[in-house]
Amino acid sequence: MTIGWYPGHMNKARKDIMKLLLQVDLVIELVDARLPYSSENPLLNSLIGETPRLKILNKTDLADPATTKLWLEFYKQKNITPYALDKTQPETIKKLLKTARKISGKKSNQVLRIMIVGIPNVGKSTFLNILLDRKVAKVGNEPAVTKGTSEIILDDSIKLIDTPGVLWPKIEDQNSAYRLAITGAIKNTAIEFEDIALFALGFLREEYPENLKNRYQLPEINMDAGLLLEAIGRKRGCLRKGGVDYHKASEALLHDIRNGALGRISLEKPESIPAC
Ligand SMILES: Nc1nc2c(ncn2[C@@H]2O[C@H](COP(=O)(O)OP(=O)(O)OP(=O)(O)O)[C@@H](O)[C@H]2O)c(=O)[nH]1
Ligand SMILES: [Mg+2]
Asked: In the chain, N or C: fewer CB atoms in 10 Å?
């Protein structure tokens, strides 16, 4: 099955972002620390162009710290300085406003307009709320919670713009699409749960065997991903008449990965992405 998700509201958001870019001084681009390559939207990337940008590897609390280090090194070699952050670090996030002003070239007596962009569910609205120190934007543990752009005044000198999560019309690299689906960036109704779960299991079995064994108390995991899913289904009580309910088992596995119940997991390393 080819994975993709580009509903109408995303196309509208793309156009709105394009217009707003003419008026903003800086873009804060959030990517997911668990998959910085696959969660970087090529569409947004080309739209942002030369506008000053602050790149954030977000949700680091869910990512493997050793792999996040590798990513920071990778970007450093490309002369990019991203910030590895998550919502448990509000004070560090707020301090970024000073850095943002510096990068934007705006003087302290000038109004600074910042737009926050990124793929769905990466934590943009949560990030905005942290900067504002109040819950203004709606957040939710599913993609496409924010449906339109909105500008919020932080104070006399800073304006922030929240935007809907945007993907792109055709995700060429289907490995990336699978990873995006694992993290919940693609709407559940646009994916086959079992398909994604089997992909995830193939990866976890190789890269995070201990996390898999510990979470589901499985002494042995060297088996076909389908059999592994069946074993997980039994452990999690995902049963129906006649055996394991594979859909429910897949749902349980993805839920566990998404909320960190399997531990801190990164889905890609700099060495595992196509040369760029
Ligand atoms: N573990 C973890 N969860 C986070 C973090 N930031 C946001 N979340 C959660 O991720 C989910 C999505 O957050 P939102 O802020 O709504 O994401 P968004 O990018 O605005 O999503 P859309 O508006 O749908 O594009 C929510 O359940 C948040 O609580 C983080 O740093 N760590
Ligand atoms: Mg949002």
From this structure: C
